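quick q for whoever's on today - can somebody do inverse folding on this one?? i tried earlier but teh output was garbage lol. tokens:
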């Protein structure tokens, strides 16, 4: 029987202790940068939402997945080059410390992107022209 996880605490609790600690470190690093963001389970994994989806993260057998989107991966490609990555995701191995400073920088970038997107949407809805 598949149990559907509906909250972040239950999601994290389903992993081995060492992975739980890494997931919680990731969670706290994101919360620190985006304290107004809300948390939910989206696409079956922890998701931060602030003016739309902000970032996602997930635990796996050998890594922590971080999903900040393609624009973020491109923006930080040099710093992320030491990690396995794809168009919108990066994998941080479980046997190494998480690069929490980099996670914070990427989250900051995403907050700015989402705030800009929200501002443009608000201006458009109010009939204002943007520069």
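ok took a stab at it. sequence:
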């Amino acid at each position: 029987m598949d149990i559907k996880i509906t909250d972040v605490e239950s999601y994290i609790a389903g992993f081995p202790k060492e992975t739980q600690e890494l997931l919680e470190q990731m969670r706290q690093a994101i919360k620190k940068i985006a304290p107004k963001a809300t948390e939910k389970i989206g696409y079956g994994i922890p998701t931060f939402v602030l003016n739309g989806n902000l970032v996602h993260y997930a635990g796996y057998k050998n890594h922590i997945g971080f999903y900040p989107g393609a624009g973020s991966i491109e923006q930080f490609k040099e710093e992320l080059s030491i990690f396995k990555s794809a168009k919108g995701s990066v994998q941080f191995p479980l046997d190494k410390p998480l690069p929490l400073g980099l996670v914070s920088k990427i989250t900051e970038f995403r907050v700015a992107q989402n705030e800009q997107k929200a501002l443009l949407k608000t201006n458009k809805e109010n009939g204002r022209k943007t520069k």
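fwiw The chain has a mean pLDDT of 92. also The helical segments are 8-13, 17-33, 70-75, 77-80, 100-125. so keep that in mind when u check it
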